[in-house]
Design goal:
This protein is of the alpha+beta class. It is built from three helices and ten strands. A hairpin with a 2-residue loop joins strand 9 and strand 10. It starts with a strand and ends with a strand.
Length: about 190
C-alpha cells in the first residue's frame, strides 16, 4: 500500500461541504469517485478539515492509501481530467504510512471576505459576504487582537467519533487551540479577516 497526500483547491458553492452526505454532492465524494474510476480501488480520502456547505479551499490537504502504482505526478493530471472543473488537484506526493491529513496537521489558515460596496460584482459574489452597511474597521482591528493566543473552543466543537490520538497513543479530548494570527486587512471596498 502507498500513502498519498493531495493538495486541493475547490469552489465549494455547489457542494454540501467536504464530508460525504446521502443524496448530496460533496468534495470528499467527488474525489473518492474519481480515485475509484482511475484505480479501481474503493477509498475514502481523509481531509485536513471538514469544510461546510458552500465553503471554498485554496490548499486543502487530503490523504488516502492505494495499491495502484500510478506515479503521484500522473495522478494530478489524471484526477484533474476526471474531477469537475470546480475541484482541482494542485499536487500529489507519496508520504510515510503514518501521515494522516487531519491528525498530522500542524496549523490551518482561514480567510473571510466582506465586500462593502453598494453593489457586489457578480464575479465576487460566490467568494465574499456582501455587507454594504457601516462597519468600523478600527473596532474590528481592535477585536481581532483578542482572538490571538490559546482559547478553549469546546462550545464550537462537534462531537468527533474519531477522537484525536496524540503521540504515545493518548486520547486528546481538549478543544484548546492556539490562534497564531488574527487580523483584518482593508483593500478598497473589501475587508478581509
Amino acid at each position: 500500500m502507498r500513502n498519498l497526500k493531495l493538495v486541493l483547491a475547490y469552489d465549494g458553492t455547489d457542494y454540501c461541504g467536504w464530508q460525504v452526505q446521502p443524496r448530496s454532492p460533496s468534495i470528499q465524494g467527488e474525489l473518492a469517485s474519481a480515485i475509484g474510476r482511475l484505480t479501481g480501488e474503493n477509498v475514502l480520502p481523509q481531509g485536513s478539515g471538514r469544510t461546510d456547505a458552500g465553503v471554498h479551499a485554496l490548499g486543502q490537504v487530503a490523504s488516502f492509501a492505494i495499491e495502484s502504482l500510478i506515479p503521484a505526478a500522473n495522478l494530478v493530471l489524471a484526477l484533474n481530467h476526471i474531477l469537475p472543473p470546480s475541484i482541482r488537484v494542485l499536487e500529489a506526493t507519496e508520504v510515510p504510512p503514518d501521515f494522516h491529513a487531519r491528525k498530522s496537521a500542524r496549523a490551518k489558515t482561514y480567510r473571510y471576505r466582506i465586500y462593502r460596496g453598494p453593489v457586489c460584482p457578480p464575479f465576487l459574489a460566490r467568494y465574499v459576504w456582501h455587507y454594504p452597511y457601516p462597519l468600523h474597521f478600527e473596532v474590528l482591528e481592535a477585536a481581532a487582537c483578542l482572538i490571538e493566543g490559546e482559547h478553549d473552543f469546546t462550545s464550537f466543537a462537534a462531537v468527533d467519533p474519531e477522537k484525536q490520538v496524540c503521540e504515545g497513543g493518548a486520547r486528546d479530548k481538549s478543544n484548546v487551540r492556539r490562534i497564531f494570527s488574527s487580523r483584518w486587512r482593508r483593500e478598497g471596498d473589501e475587508f478581509e479577516y
